[in-house]
Amino acid sequence: MPTTTRASAQDDFKHIVQEVMGQAENSPIWRALVRHDYVDFPDLIMMQEEDINSLSYQDDEGNEVPLIRLHGNLIRIFQAFEAKRRQGGEYGDFQSIILDEFEEYRIRDYVVPTLRATGTDTTPMPTATQPTKAAPATNVEVAAFRRGIKRDKAHYVLLKEEKQWDNWKRAMLATARSHGTEDILDPNDEPDANEVDIFEEKQKFMYSVFESVLKTDMGKHLVRK
Predict the structure, then answer these.
(1) Cα separation, 33 vs 17, whole angstroms
(2) Tally of CB atoms within 10 A around 100
(3) CA distance 16 to 102
(4) pTM of this prediction?
(5) What separation in angstroms does the CA of 190 have from each of 57, 118, 142, 184, 199?
């Protein structure tokens, strides 16, 4: 195993947060991590769930602002990404990790934990080998969806030109996953009769997102349809 000095660990930390996660030094994630003395690579990968949930930063007016779940999810996803690298026998040379490699894992391979109404269940989403029967989407669950993860249309990138489509789609899907609304983007997903209410809530939110961020002629046409 390669020897890691404090200086190199800090360089690795800076590369991961700024280049791989795409978070500049004035971003909420960077400011929150540094404020809580997470400043090197081992700090980042050994953070516990309660550590991530307690992150906050000071805004430009000196107010203490909690880190939103969307940003905390980036840290969780990177930890899962690094765990997969280790399982594959990869360790060290963190400077060689690039944004596209991380984005591919985040969009294609990362399994989003299921969030129940209590907000404490982190059971992985069922796969084809784990058939489950969906529980009824009660009014309580609909209310929990509305109150749960902070979902904001501003979290989504604007699509202003058709040539941006591929990059925009990757970013949009990653954000939808962190919001728990990715299922409505799957044309093969058919909600059960007892899931219709929660499915419609997700549809309403994503429709408002598309209405807000799709600025190309084709995008506006699709929203009107």
Answers:
(1) 10
(2) 10
(3) 10
(4) 0.50
(5) 41, 25, 18, 9, 9
The DSSP bridge partners found for residue 64 are: 58
The CB-side HSE value for 177 (13 A sphere, CA atoms) comes to 22
Mean pLDDT for each 10-residue chunk of the chain (225 residues)?
A: 66 91 89 92 88 91 88 89 80 83 84 48 39 47 62 85 82 82 80 81 89 85 72
Name the nearest CA neighbour of 77 among 115, 33, 121, 110: 110
Type of residue numbered 216: T
Phi-psi category of residue 110: left, alpha or beta, with phi > 0 → left and psi -120 to 50 → alpha: beta
| Encoded amino acid at 16, one letter | I
Which ranges of 105-179 does DSSP label H, i.e. alpha helix? Answer: 139-147, 165-179
